[in-house]
Specification:
Structural class of chain B: mainly beta
Number of helices of chain A: 4
Order of helices and strands of chain B: HEEEEEEHEEEHEEEEEHEEEH
Radius of gyration of chain B: 24 Å
Strand content of chain B: 35-45%
Structural class of chain A: mainly beta
Number of domains of chain A: 1
Order of helices and strands of chain A: HEHHEHEEEEEEEEEEEEEEEEEE
Distance between the termini of chain A: 75 Å
Number of domains of chain B: 2
CATH class of chain A: Mainly Beta
Distance between the termini of chain B: 54 Å
Strand order of the largest sheet of chain B: 3-4-5-7-8-12-13-16
Radius of gyration of chain A: 27 Å
CATH architecture of chain A: Beta Barrel
Largest interface: A-B, 63 and 60 residues
Strand content of chain A: over 45%
Largest sheet of chain B: 8 strands, antiparallel, barrel
Number of strands of chain B: 17
Helix content of chain B: 10-25%
Strand order of the largest sheet of chain A: 2-3-4-5-6-8-9-12-13-14-15-16-17-20
Oligomer: heterodimer
Chain lengths: ~500, ~325
């Protein structure tokens, strides 16, 4: 039945068909870049939600905007990722998809869930891990300002990081065997294109009292949609297809809240809440065939997803002398990563659901005169469970260190502050092997969480069993196992003109 | 163990940061791929065997033919797109003849590799894998001549046969040129001299003159047909047959039937048994055109692969399943 259907479709498409692809915008807010790089414009470093001092508080904790010097900040930043992914060797030819299975179907004539590519052909045209995205370097411009009003009780802040080159990259990939049709590679799930997310935020901080400040902010990003009405007169002659495009770009906001409480001169407590963020592109396709039959489909693409994040921080001034301050600080951020949606809008399969995480950071700030030094250490556990099944989400536990210095001075009659910051993250080595998929003689997928047998045992072509269909055959690029490890480094310079 | 070690080393190498793929196997046995040579890595390229047409050979010499030609199954598309017949096909030809009121269906099975440019179809590899005759009416005979099949495989080639497949408002119009086949006699001579009658019993081929040839090496002239049924015995014949296939098919067909306009010039070189046996040799084409046709069935990559002998063995076993109406 399936084969007949396909043949009919091909005949129709070859004869003539019209296809219309429509992308519609969805919710769009994202800033994983903020969360990775922290506050580069002050002493915040890896604890910007606890230690303020710059315009970046507009995103991390708007309640701290009151502690920032009013003025304009500009800066530059770079982030480099070197994330190596190693794939284990395929152990035998019996696991390969043989050539000539494009017409394969189940023994009862029902269609396979997806027709795999012949493994040898795939390796020739799209070598395994031949198009990874774990080795890239990005450059950014940063800008921000802080303005204060009403006797400094109200502070307005703006902060943005804009990548050089492409304004943003949105790269979708599948995290399982479906990626064979595209890059046939594994990709770092929480880096790569997420490091070019649009990152612009604004916030308001209000000083309720000498002890209490509250803030409200929002991150801003683009929401875009693209439509591509296409007319295909001959599926075998795609170079002559006709295409129009319809695109639109909008903006979206995601709120974040902050609070700062200082019960004494030495103690400082903070709290933050960030709403989930994502950029979603709803793509719709309709195919109009020459005989008037119309078919359609829609699916979402989700980029730069960030979950609910709730943070709490505390800082204590060990030394609090005129001209000298030594502060220890700690922050914990809870991330509800169990709600994660990947780039195709799919939640990880239940058996391999992501974990919620708690990320601790500790550090020290030391100020002497007009110079402030900062150093932080952070451990961020990965929310991704061991990928022993079908999916290949690549992520690692991460150990991070950050340091910075800034110096305030006066030039002419202008007060300035300059600073530099550097961060280094080590993605701790992680190796994982796939669990074996038990035999499924009836050709049905009884273990959807495990690596899928893409050529089920009951596969036939024209009623004839397919040699080599017995047992597991897969093009899953992560099978039979993979490892990952890497470093991410970032550095930035900034200059603030103090009002 | 070596592969396991390399795999472990590969995983450990992740610390060097570049992406790494441990050597492994990527192609199943029988596929043209790197596994046949051992292992490969991500940068290795796979040699994709293409189905280049062999030179159209002079069908006069069995020794000149490359018996080692191997089919990997990667001979083109595995489904028909529109009217493009490129690819690998099983062809089963059915011709019904009358002899003394009895109807007999003669079958011949072919392996075709075809390529199509525009509407022009060329058989780049065409091999006859043998045939038989089945009685389809009371008092008819069955004929077996399987000992001739190896010779047919090497001498009854259709390589180079041309045709057309043209899109029409209702599908495709397909036709193949009239094509002759000689069995049991000097092939090039009787193909090139169609006006010359097939040889008589006294005209055995020699090194210098054409005539009948003992294709099944049984000491009898021509080929030996073993007749069973109402009459049992052997007849010795040489044949010259032509077929001309044409018809309308649906676009995208992977299995279709064309009418066969055929005729045969059969020369009885002798017989062993009742004189009734000769009626089989003198049978003439049935007037009902619907009884004569050729069925084309597209082959999957896993079907009919290997050298010519293996291909033909597979073709003969597949014919009843893929083209049942043409084998009855």
């Amino acid at each position: 039945m399936r084969r007949a259907g396909r043949a009919t479709c091909r005949r129709r498409t070859v004869a003539a068909c019209a296809a219309v692809a429509i992308g519609t915008p969805g919710a769009a807010k994202a800033s994983p870049l903020f969360d990775l790089t922290g506050g580069i414009d002050g002493p915040g470093v890896l604890q910007p939600g606890t230690i303020g001092g710059g315009a970046s508080a507009a995103y991390f904790n708007p309640a701290l905007l009151g502690k920032a010097s009013p003025g304009l900040t500009i800066g530059v930043m770079t982030v480099g990722e070197q994330i190596g992914i190693s794939l284990a060797g395929r152990p035998g030819t019996s696991f390969s998809i043989p050539a000539g299975v494009s017409n394969a179907a189940h023994a009862d004539g029902s269609a396979l869930s997806s027709i795999p590519l012949p493994t040898a052909q795939l390796q020739a045209t799209h070598p395994r891990q031949g198009a990874g995205t774990g080795h890239e370097t990005f450059f950014y411009e940063a800008a921000g300002f802080v303005a204060k009003m009403f006797d400094d009780r109200l502070a307005l802040g703006f902060y943005g990081i804009v990548p050089d080159g492409n304004f943003t990259n949105l790269t979708a990939f599948y995290d399982d065997e479906r990626e064979q049709y595209f890059t046939n590679s594994l990709h770092p799930e929480l880096y790569a294109d997420r490091l070019t997310a649009i990152s612009v935020a604004a916030g308001l901080g209000y000083k309720v009292s000498d002890m209490l400040s509250v803030g409200l902010g929002a991150s801003l990003a683009l929401r875009a949609g693209v439509g591509a009405p296409t007319y295909v007169s001959n599926a075998g002659d795609l170079q002559h297809l006709l295409i129009d495009t319809n695109a639109n770009v909008n903006v979206a906001l995601a709120p974040n809240l902050g609070v700062s409480f200082e019960p004494s001169a030495r103690w400082h407590f903070t709290g933050t809440v960030h709403a989930p963020e994502k950029m979603q592109l709803d793509v719709g396709f309709t195919f109009l065939l020459a005989n008037g039959v119309q078919q359609g489909s829609t699916f979402p693409l989700v980029y730069d997803y960030m979950p609910w994040q709730i943070g709490a921080g505390a800082a204590y001034d060990i030394i609090q002398e005129p001209g000298e301050t030594l502060t220890v600080a700690g922050t914990a951020v809870y991330g509800k990563w169990s709600d994660y949606l990947d780039r195709h809008g799919d939640a990880p399969i239940a058996q391999y659901g992501w974990y919620d995480t708690l990320t601790p950071t500790v550090g020290v700030r030391y100020t002497r005169g007009e110079t402030t030094w900062a150093i932080d250490a952070q451990y961020k556990p990965t929310p991704v469970p061991p990928q022993t099944g079908r999916t290949n989400y690549v992520d690692n536990d991460r150990l991070g260190f950050g340091g910075g210095v800034n110096y305030a001075f006066t030039m002419g009659h202008t007060s300035l502050r300059v600073g530099a910051q550097a961060q280094a993250y080590w993605l701790l080595p992680r190796y994982q092997w796939k669990l074996p998929t038990p035999p499924e003689p009836d050709g049905q997928n009884h273990y959807p969480a495990l690596v899928i047998d893409e050529l089920p045992d009951d596969s036939e072509i024209n009623g004839e069993p397919i040699a080599g269909a017995s047992g597991l055959q897969t093009n899953n690029p992560g099978w039979p196992g993979f490892g990952s490890e890497g470093v991410v480094v970032a550095g930035g310079l900034f200059l603030t003109v103090i009002q | 163990m070596r592969k396991l070690w390399l795999s472990v080393v590969g995983l450990a190498a992740a610390g060097c940061l570049p992406d790494y793929v441990a050597p492994g196997d990527y192609a199943p046995p029988g596929d043209a791929g790197p596994d046949d040579a051992g292992t490969d890595d991500a940068s290795a390229e796979v040699a994709i065997t293409s189905a280049q047409p062999p030179p159209v050979s002079d069908a006069s010499s069995t020794s000149s033919r490359d018996a080692a030609r191997a089919t990997t199954g990667e001979g083109g598309p595995e489904t028909t797109v529109g009217c493009d017949l490129s690819g690998r096909w099983l062809v089963a030809d059915r011709r019904v003849a009358n002899g003394l009121g009895a109807e007999e269906a003669g079958h011949e099975w072919f392996y075709f590799e075809m390529s199509q440019v525009g509407s022009q179809v060329t058989v780049t590899t065409g091999i006859s894998c043998g045939g038989n005759v089945v009685g389809i009416s009371p008092a008819s005979a069955n004929v077996d001549y399987h000992k001739t099949w190896p010779a047919m495989q090497t001498d009854c080639l259709q390589t180079g046969r041309t045709g057309t497949s043209v899109a029409t408002s209702s599908g495709c119009s397909v036709s193949f040129e009239k094509y002759y086949e000689v069995i049991g006699a000097s092939v090039p001579y009787y193909l090139q001299n169609l006006s010359v009658a097939m040889p008589t019993a006294s005209q055995e081929a020699t090194a210098t003159s054409p005539g009948w040839q003992d294709w099944d090496d049984d000491g009898n002239p021509g080929i030996t047909m073993n007749v069973t049924g109402l009459t049992t015995g052997q007849i010795y014949v040489s044949l010259r047959t032509y077929t001309q296939w044409s018809g309308a098919i649906a676009a995208g067909s992977n299995n279709f039937t064309l009418a066969d306009d055929w005729d045969s010039d059969t020369d009885l070189l002798g017989y062993d048994g009742s004189s009734l046996l000769t009626s089989t040799a003198s049978a003439s084409k049935d007037n009902d055109a619907s009884l004569h046709f050729a069925t084309f069935a597209r082959l999957s990559a896993s079907q009919a692969t290997g050298d010519d002998t293996a291909v033909c063995t597979a073709i003969r076993s597949l014919a009843p399943m893929l083209a049942p109406e043409a084998t009855n």
